[in-house]
Amino acid sequence: MRDPVTPPNHSPRRKHAARARTRLPRVKRSQPGLPAGIEYHELTQSANSAPARVCCIDYSPERIQVQEVGDIAAFLTNHRPDWTQVRWIHVEGLQDRRVVRALAEKYQLHPLAIEDVLDGGHRPKLEDFPAIGELPGRLFVMARGVRLVEDQMLAEQIGFFLGRNTLLSFQQTSSPAINEIRQRLDNPRSRVRQHDASFLLYALIDALVDRFFPLLDASSERLEMAEEAVLTCPETQSLHALHLIKRDLVMIRRTAWPMRELVSQLQREHHECLSAITQTYFRDVYDHCVQIIDLIETYREIASAVAETYVSVVSNRTNDIMKVLTIIGTIFIPLTFLAGVYGMNIPMPETHWQAAYPVFWAVCLGIAGFMLWRFRRGGWL
């Protein structure tokens, strides 16, 4: 289920500089002392908030109906068609609190779950809100993915509310995974059309997990190029590229590891809204998560090994340079001694000999040649 993605070009220095300025992940916390959760009346609309995009998809094995919701109040007053087997309502844009409040009141979403949806820094998790009185039971799933936008790794968060026949999803921006599932729903023979709402949840989470593979493939190719550059022509840019690769792998791991725990809970824990068929399919998603974690750990070890190789290559190059300089200096030690002795401004018997000058050069060249022969025979050159 992988999608071919062209690996980005990370060669220009400008892109390296832009990626180096990527901020580290930070945890946002509300002001201390505030109560937990967000009540419905607290979902107030700000003046400059952008309108949300709401898409409702009603489908059954035989039919499908897609509608873009403009008036949320009028939409919620109408009942779903009788032929509908699953209703999927997807919201893009969480600044529009009017839409969030209308859906929360209609489907009686829990205040704690609403707070988690509006907060963009949560780990993937699974929350069970059982039925209490007239309040229907729902399964709240917080999922996260990673995608590449303009050569930068960005995390995306999607909150799901699963009912028996309804699935609500909330996201800040559009996601390729959402678009992929919408295209699959257009096919009457798609398995998503043949099953319940929990199977739709599986398909969405599976699409999020599969988006990790193209990113890891791109990281693998970048790692191979960095390794080749280190072994052939090690430069400071090679070490900088390795640092960016390791940084991206850490971010992918930070998202993929809790996603594995989430999928493990979905395939293990029983819930009234999860069918047995869906839990069986979640086993395949769990296998993908395990494979992703293994690839991440492997690439991290390779990146660390390549970084150590870079240090070793640079050290060996420095040692070779120092060895050559040391040999040159050693050769010139006796020559400097002879030049210093016969360069003194005092009378010497050899200075009155006519052949003294050529003999002096012959002795110097002989000493240098002998020392070069000795160094080569000893394996120093």
Automatic annotation (TrEMBL):
Protein name: Magnesium transport protein CorA
Similarity comment text for this entry: Belongs to the CorA metal ion transporter (MIT) (TC 1.A.35) family.
Pro residues bias spans: 1-10
Gene name of the record: corA
InterPro entries reported in the protein's UniProt record: CorA_cytoplasmic_dom (IPR045861), CorA_TM1_TM2 (IPR045863), Mg/Co-transport_prot_CorA (IPR004488), MgTranspt_CorA/ZnTranspt_ZntB (IPR002523)
Segments crossing the lipid bilayer: 324-343, 355-375
Cell compartments where the protein resides: Cell membrane; Membrane
Segments of this protein annotated with the region Disordered: 1-33
